[in-house]
Amino acid sequence: MTTAVRRRQRDTGLARLRDTEFARLDRTGTVYLDYTGSALYPESLVNQHAAFLEHAMLGNPHSDHPVAATSTELLTVARRSILDFFDADPSVYTVCLTANASAAFKLVAEAFPFSAESRCVLTADNHNSINGLREFAKRAGAKVTHVPLDDDLRLNAGDGSIRDVQAPSIFAYPAQSNFSGVQHSLEYIEAYQRRGYVVVLDAAAFTPSNPLSLRHVCPDFVGISFYKMFGYPTGIGALIAKKTSLAALRRPWFAGGTVDFVSVQHGMHQLQDGPEGFEDGTPNFIGAAAVPMGLRFLRDVGLERIRTHVRELTHKALVGLADMHHANGQPAVRLYGPADTNSRGGAVAFNVVTDTGTVQPYWEVETAAATAGMSVRGGCFCNPGASEKAFRIDAARSKQCLASFGSREFSPERLSACLGGEAVGAVRASFGLATTSADVERLLDFVGGFRE
Questions:
Q1: CB of 433 within 8 A of CB of 311?
Q2: pLDDT at 443 over 90
Q3: Long-range contacts of 353-358 (CB under 8 A, 24+ apart)
């Protein structure tokens, strides 16, 4: 069977899926290109969950009566399905259910035993969900450093940041960039662990269209949000943690179901063992019922199939945008990150530029896209370090500009004007399993309309 035939068969299958699970896109004429922001939920997942809830009786799991026991079992099944989906050995890993990936990382940050001898190594490409770890590290006097990026926005690990540590220290990085779509090597996990670091992996942007086996790579902590994987429900994510690494954390407080015992008279409390001791308040037990259903949907479609589909669409977008030129021969688009799909996920960040090389403000392009029925993202995508590198913003000049703004006066428009019209944000198109080649062509036609 030829490659072309296999591709047609694959595209036919995904086209059928779009017709059955995401028909609302074509009914409304919407071009949705913000899959890094959130997946779209398949209709069958919502219907399946609704049918389950119609007949189920669920209550607060922090009780022992029959209705509560049903909720407790749902949470157990959800944790088990998460470990199974990520090929995690249940004797090694456990799952804390959280509100989202940000909440998962906060659990680690606030309970990590930082000291003045510790190191907190982040990257210039971290999402703000990870960047916030530095506040807990600095409060304890730990040294905070950042691994820089090269011109392709890949990690430049040759800067000497990997060094042996003795005190409890963290290395935290994304498997896939929210800004550029770059997929950073999972080999960094073992490299930093050998030097004594606890490794925190941000897998939120990676897992919707890429398989992740926690038997092949073994980070200490992994954070995910399920709405990014299959769109529904929001308000539930997970911290997948090595049991030994979780046991080394020291919770700074307690609440709700995290405790076995509390005494007001004696100022005492005893945390529950395992993940329950880290789940603040009552878990989203109703949402948890949908997690195994959503994971089953992705498994049935096939992550390898989704990855190949997304890679082909990304290639089409990269080539089409790179080929756009004005009548005078000047490029009409400025791309950020690698020009090919090697170790790259389905996100493309770019700016539209005029025939004189001036950047078209991203907010104007985003507004025009919305008018055209197209959902793309504009800004820095919660990745300030990658943005600063991509736009080559002069640190001293931008600091001076920011210092000139009074309280509540900051805006991208003001910063861009202060920097002489330089880019301070970009447009991002990101692709998922429901994206079609026609969607990418709509994007290219739209961007091509800015040419002069």
A1: no
A2: yes
A3: 354/326, 354/452, 355/326, 355/327, 355/328, 355/330, 355/451, 355/452, 356/330, 357/330, 358/421
Give the C-alpha separation, 323 to 448, whole Å: 10
2 pLDDT more than 60: no
Residue type, 225: S
Yes or no: say if 21 and 30 are a contact pair by the CB < 8 Å rule: no
Catalytic residue flag (residue 380): no
Question: Domains of the chain (ranges plus CATH)?
Answer: 3-32+302-448 (3.90.1150.10), 47-300 (3.40.640.10)
Which residue is listed with tokens 């456990």? 94
pLDDT: is 408 or 398 the higher one? 398
- Residue position matching structure tokens 């930093």: 192
Looking at 112-162, which runs of residues are DSSP E strands? 119-123, 143-147
Average pLDDT value for the chain:
91
Please state whether the predicted TM-score (pTM) of the whole model is above 0.85. yes
CA distances from 160 to 167, 221, 378 (A): 18, 24, 34
Residue tagged 């949705």 (tokens)? 32
Nearest residue to 95 via CA among 223, 219, 205: 223
- Distance set, CA 367 to CA 178, 244, 362, 371 (Å): 21, 49, 9, 6
Residue 160 has pLDDT above 70, yes or no: no
pLDDT above 50 (res 279):
yes
CA distance 139 to 223: 23
Q: Is the peptide bond before 233 cis (omega within 30 degrees of 0)?
A: yes
How far CA 224 is from CA of 95, 240, 241, in Å, comes to: 11, 8, 11
| Active-site position among 120, 380, 382, 401 | 382
Q: What is the mean pLDDT of residues 235-261?
A: 89
3-class DSSP assignment, residue 348: strand
What's 90's DSSP letter? Answer: T
